[in-house]
Write a structure and sequence with these properties.
By secondary structure, this protein is of the alpha/beta class. It is built from 24 helices and 19 strands. It has five domains: about 140 residues, no CATH class; about 190 residues, Rossmann fold; about 70 residues; about 70 residues, Arc Repressor Mutant, subunit A (Orthogonal Bundle); about 170 residues, Ribonuclease Inhibitor (Leucine-rich repeat, LRR (right-handed beta-alpha superhelix), Alpha-Beta Horseshoe), CATH 3.80.10.10. The longest helix is centred in the N-terminal third of the chain and has 37 residues. The radius of gyration is 30 Å and the shape is globular. This is NB-ARC domain-containing protein. Belongs to the disease resistance NB-LRR family. Keywords: ATP-binding, Leucine-rich repeat, Nucleotide-binding, Plant defense, Repeat.
Length: about 725
């Protein structure tokens, strides 16, 4: 994976040469004002600044790689302490490079009239003896050295065995709750797949399809002949989010149908789909003896062992690398399993629908959360040690109130049950009830660390995209095109040749859907509540949702993405206090800023929060002249009808602005220099829409009409 392009500012840094050449030429042309030594000192300072910026640009890709590796070990306290500081330094590097890019664009737009651009940037970076670029370089160097000393710069990242222990075919849970119908029918399906004379008549009427039921409703239809391989080895995937009970289901199936198969194999795969290792372990599972040799000899031995035998093989915890090399790795593993006896089957457990679709020969069995009374009985067992009764009616009522948080997840029930069992005081239980799940201390094998493994396995660019979703509240309905635009504006999308950047971002979204991070419900995309808790956990230093007045003090010091939910108690002073979070990149304000008391806060935000790239505001009386301070701004949206009738002339200094959505505002005029917004790709205002990427599809007359319309405002 190439991650050097994940931040768009890097691609433009080479253009800085022109501005620095201008600066050096200007110093030389005014040499009569200084002595030779003074001129040389000035030239040296310019060269050092140019070199420093280039060094930051060259270093960033390695820094992203180090962040990615550090996240794999962030369950270790020493890494968890350093990672936020290191990420903050990387963010600062991105911001200063992006700010320089703005000055470059200013020169492009203004020409000779902007000769002060370099001086302005120079004064911004160098303040007396303090040099921002050198400071960032020093922080990056010190922190990266500390992280690399912890071994993060070495081997390929893999799941730590402490957070992803190896599984076996023996169930830890002797009783399964709420899965009786699925378990019974899958077992029946496997037992009748023998294909010999004793079962042929029995199975004939059942060969075409079988329905797996759960809680008296259909979950999945398993088609026996769907893409079934000629070798007779069917593949049945069991899919669901982490902690839903896939492994437990597979263990119970394995133990109950094992007597019906001549050969049985259980493989704990995890994130290392190594064909040779798995082939060795398959042989050892059958023979009980350790096997050695080259892959060819190992596969011949496996083929000889299972040929014309009825085989049951379980691959537990399959991840995306099973499909590496365009699926060739998977085919290589399956090659010696040809010519097994009809009725043989492979069970696969995975969190990824993409993986399930890539390996299945039968329709996937999807496990959802446990339902209603069954889940309550299981949760009582976790809390009190018995599903039948508890000794404290008040605690039981609190437990019932906690139950909806867990969304039917057995592992979530175990996690909260363990916490509650440790302390039987009502005050403690009420604190758990009032807390977000991600705020509670958890062990490495609890629900959120388990779900976090899915996040860890994402490519770095998808991690950044999904972690941003921590700024949206639970049950938020996402639109693919909207979120793709936000990701582009944040600089998370890597260019790929001539493909429109918006299309690339849309593909990112589809990738996350295929990995089950988004699910479609009633036509809209949402994030499962437990995955939302997980994303808030992994983004807790960067993202924050402001709901209540008492939460202003909880906002992380260096928060980058903030959403403000509508609350009448959020007064001017409270909203003004957000200005201290000067590193903010995203501000989503869902409360109107039309009231005379709170309206002036927009001016302060634009003045103090100069690093913002995305602003979404419900409504406002107007945009202040100080909007010109938002050099990084890419996305601006006023989502509701507002008194806003015009844009200030300083608005035209937003050279990075890509998206402008103010369609509900009755704009009466645009600034005369509106065409200076050279990065603008999409505009919606006054019922008018214009998408630059589709301009080439318009005829000349239509394009001219649009141009006249804009100039006519």
């Amino acid at each position: 994976m190439s991650i050097s392009g994940t931040i768009g500012v890097i691609s433009g840094i080479n253009e800085c040469v022109n501005l620095f050449q201008w600066a050096r030429s200007s110093i030389s042309s005014l040499h009569s004002r200084w002595s030779g030594k003074q001129e040389q000192n000035l030239q040296d300072e310019v060269l050092h600044l140019q070199s420093g910026l280039q060094c930051l640009s060259d270093t960033l890709p390695a820094m992203y790689n180090l962040i990615d590796r550090a996240e794999w070990r962030s369950h270790k306290h020493c890494v968890a302490e350093l990672l936020p500081k290191f990420s903050d330094a990387v963010y600062d590097a991105e911001d200063i490079l992006d700010e320089f890019r703005w000055y470059e664009q200013k020169v492009t737009v203004e020409g000779i009239a902007s000769q002060s651009a370099f001086i302005d940037f120079f004064n911004c970076v160098i303040q007396g003896s303090f040099n921002k670029v050198k400071d960032i370089q020093k922080r990056l160097e010190n922190l990266s050295n500390l992280l690399e000393k912890m071994g993060l710069g070495e081997a390929t990242p893999r799941f730590d065995k402490s957070v992803r222990p190896e599984t076996s075919s023996f169930p830890i849970e002797t009783i399964m709750f709420g899965r009786d119908q699925e378990l019974t029918q899958v077992i029946e399906l496997l037992v009748v797949r023998e294909g010999d004379s004793t079962t042929k008549a029995h199975s004939k009427g059942k060969r075409e399809c079988r329905t797996i039921n759960s809680s008296k409703r259909t979950l999945a239809t398993i088609n026996h002949v769907c893409n079934e391989q000629e070798n007779g080895l069917a593949v049945l995937p069991i899919v669901g989010i982490g902690g839903v009970g896939k492994t437990t289901m597979a263990q119970h199936i394995y133990q109950q149908v094992k007597p019906h198969f001549k050969k049985t194999i259980w493989l704990s795969v995890s994130d290392d789909f190594d064909v040779k290792r798995l082939t060795k372990e398959a042989l050892q599972s059958i023979s009980g003896e350790e096997s050695t040799g080259q892959l060819d000899s190992l596969q011949h031995a496996l083929h000889k062992t299972v040929c014309q035998k009825k085989l049951l093989i379980v691959l537990d915890d399959l991840w995306d690398d099973a499909l590496k090399e365009n699926g060739q790795s998977w085919k290589r593993f399956c090659a010696p399993l040809k010519n097994v006896r009809k009725g043989s089957i492979m069970l696969v457990t995975t969190r990824s629908q993409k993986v399930a679709d890539g390996v299945r020969t039968m329709k996937t069995l999807k496990l959802n959360g446990l339902k209603d009374d069954v889940f309550w009985n299981f949760f009582k067992l976790c809390m009190f040690g018995s599903e039948r009764f508890s000794n404290d009616h008040e605690l039981e009522q609190i437990g019932r109130s906690i139950l909806p948080k867990l969304k039917g997840s057995p592992l979530a029930a175990k996690t909260l049950g363990r916490l509650l069992r440790m302390n039987r005081h009502t005050t403690y239980w009420n604190n758990v009830l009032e807390s977000e799940l991600w705020e509670l201390r958890q062990q490495e094998d609890d629900i959120l660390p388990a779900l976090r493994l899915s996040y860890m396995y994402l490519p770095f660019y998808l991690k950044r995209c999904f972690s941003l979703c921590g700024v949206y509240p639970k049950d938020h309905e996402f639109e693919k095109d909207y979120l793709a635009e936000i990701w582009v504006a944040e600089g998370f999308v890597e260019p790929q040749g001539d493909i429109p950047i918006q299309d690339i971002a849309s593909q990112y979204f589809e990738d996350l859907v295929s990995r089950s991070f988004f699910q479609k419900v009633h036509g809209a995309y949402v994030i499962h509540d437990l995955l939302h808790d997980m994303v808030q956990m992994v983004s807790k230093n960067d993202c924050f949702i402001l709901k209540n007045v008492n939460e202003f003090q909880k906002i992380p010091k260096n928060v980058r993405h903030l959403s403000v939910l509508s609350n009448p108690k959020f007064d001017y002073s409270k909203l003004l206090s957000l200005c201290k979070h000067e590193k903010l990149r995203t501000l989503i304000c869902n409360m109107p800023l039309e009231d005379k008391v709170v309206a002036p806060v927009m001016d302060h935000w634009c003045t103090e929060l100069g690093r913002m790239r995305v602003i979404i505001c419900a409504s406002t009386t107007g945009l202040p002249g100080s909007v010109c301070n938002l050099k990084h701004l890419r996305y601006l949206e006023i989502s509701r009808a507002s008194p806003l009738k015009s844009l200030p002339s300083t608005f035209c200094c937003l050279y990075n602005l890509q998206i402008l959505y103010i369609g509900e505002c009755k704009i009466e005029s645009l600034p005369s220099d509106f065409d200076k917004l050279i990065s603008l790709r999409r505009i919606e205002l006054c019922g008018f829409r214009y998408y630059l990427e589709y301009q080439l599809n318009c005829d000349a007359l239509e394009a001219e009409q649009k141009k006249r319309y804009l100039h006519g405002l």
